[in-house]
Amino acid sequence: MKAWRVHRNGEPRAVMSLDEVPDPVAGPGQLLLRVLAANVNFPDALLCRGEYQVRPPLPFTPGVEVCAEVAAVGDGATGEAGDRVLAQPPLPGGGFAEFTVADAASVLPAPAGLGDAEAAALHIGYQTGWFGLHRRARLQAGETLLVHAAAGGVGSAAVQLGKAAGATVIGVAGGPEKAAVARDLGCDLVLDRRSDDVVAAVKEATSGRGADVVYDPVGGEAYRQSAKCVAFEGRIVVVGFAGGAVPAPALSHALVKNYSILGLHWGLYASKDPGAVRDCHRELTALAARGAIAPLVSERAGLDGAAGAVQRVADGLTTGRVVVVPGR
């Protein structure tokens, strides 16, 4: 089969190569999956660079979430050939390939109402948003939610989930094109970080109170802005550092302003509370079924275009989700 592999660390376009490799085999408790669609995530770029918290042995295949069809069932595994599922293939055998394997206990049913690309984009980004907003920040209807990188893959999910929860959503995006995308997603107010004074605008929109919850997958300057415009007893959810700079929070500022800084590493829930992950999936499936959330897939690439797709996500040139469709 064909699979993208990383043989050395560096920029995705430079280090990903499309190789012919043996077909994988489902081991005990595993499912062999035919990849229908593989969503591109920013961690795929970090994996290529060797900058992610997990460093798989070289060579490895990136692609951390897929929508797939069960092709074969390993000994002791639960599943049926032909089932359509969402899965996170364990590295080093990721999803940018024609086939992959996953532990049967970890797969989830793909929502029937979503196409393959949209289903592939529903999992990690929306689970991260749901856990961040509901489990960590306890977002309430009527509160104000500020979302950085609101037109991106992670941010767009948070915008939709915030609106579904009854919050007023302020989105921050970079440039007029991305601002328009954030507006179409349902943001009540959109700020262009390149031309607007984000802190002043948030305070004006909230009559000086600030944002009750801030969802920050960017870090760096975005975090600095967050600390300046978070409300009394507000919550800043630290999701990632797509901007490249890891902030050093001034804890004295958090103390005098009475706000919380909440870390979110969604992947930990798979081992520490897998039942909550399944409960969240059921909630997301229900929200998608009634149209409250809808993954924004801005680009579909064939398998041969995966390296370029990962590079574009790494460079911040995309909106919504970019999905690799091997059969395209």
From TrEMBL:
Cited InterPro entries: ADH-like_C (IPR013149), ADH-like_N (IPR013154), ER (IPR020843), GroES-like_sf (IPR011032), NAD(P)-bd_dom_sf (IPR036291), Quin_OxRdtase/zeta-crystal_CS (IPR002364), Zn-ADH-like_protein (IPR051397)
Domain Enoyl reductase (ER) positions: 13-324
Protein name in UniProt: NADPH:quinone oxidoreductase family protein
